[in-house]
Predict the structure.
Amino acid sequence: MRLDISLRKKLGDFTFDAAFATETDRVGIFGRSGSGKSTLAHMIAGLIPPDGGHIELDGEVLYSSERRISLLPERRRIAVVFQNAHLFPHMDVERNLLYGYRRTPPALRKVDPAALIAVLDLGALLGRRIQALSGGERQRVALGRALLASPRLLVMDEPLSALDEALKYQIIPYLTAISEEFRVPSLLISHSLNEMRLMSEEVVVLHRGEVTGQMTPEELARQRMGWTRAGYINLLRLSPPQAVDDLYGYAFGDCRLLMWAGRRGETTFELSSKDIMLFKGHPEAISARNLLHCTVVSVSAMENRVAVELDCGGQTLIATVVARAAEEMGIGPGTKIYAVIKASAFRPLF
Ligand SMILES: Nc1ncnc2c1ncn2[C@@H]1O[C@H](COP(=O)(O)OP(=O)(O)OP(=O)(O)O)[C@@H](O)[C@H]1O
């Protein structure tokens, strides 16, 4: 999609004045609470009027103060999914799902209900009342209903915030499958770096109503690695594993990672940069199951620690170690090093 936005809006003491353009199909809007994310979502969907500016989607002007254009929300064909699924309580799941579909002219329908129901795994729920659904199921129905209206853009305003961790990671693969299968561009609003990394290709950073950056989710994660106590988290997307004795083996570039965490066949893992130990020489007789031969790509300082970017058989990992240790080991770009990781250090997401 091509989205070009420049908008101004004053709300009490808060001033929104932000501009960005993107050509990616999965855009993330990232910012802290109160940075103006929801205000932006509402203006894009036509739910609140901007004070000025323009919105262009794939070459069509949805709003332009200069040209006095402001398409009605229904003419914009932008679907919005909010934090709490707003479903029709008097209709069952199926009628909720088909609500927008039936109102979409056949020529514009590009999402097949049966295929969507399969992707979102809603087949068994079609006859259920909305009150009898869990939070995660409601959110899946809300997504399904939004997509069946075949929108040109799906705006998701903190769609996972109301869900607990486990449910959140159940929904994310569905969202990814949807965007791959039905090719509906999306704009995801969230204050979660994790969600940005898992679900967007490009991130627009909002701060106090202004755009302060536009970058890849990986760049955002690296930029923020010194900002939180958790530090940098490596995100690993791997192919399905093979059983190796009582562990699971995952291909990782030219290396293999052994874990005992992937019991349910998960392929996406988090690995804290703090859980990677570095050795200058080959350590003897260690209990950790993963010993990767890597080359240091870069070393960057973060307060009293350093982040060491490693190339491990063609894959990247970032380890953080205390600055003194890196100094004593003489680590610098090009240093050959062993990275040691316990099989239990990998956190399976989905
Ligand atoms: N109708 C209003 N009148 C006055 N101020 C408002 C109004 N609506 C929103 N604001 C203020 O505008 C700012 C941006 O709000 P917005 O909801 O867009 O932020 P947000 O980034 O989505 O936050 P959150 O992540 O907490 O949902 C906030 O400071 C909010 O208090």
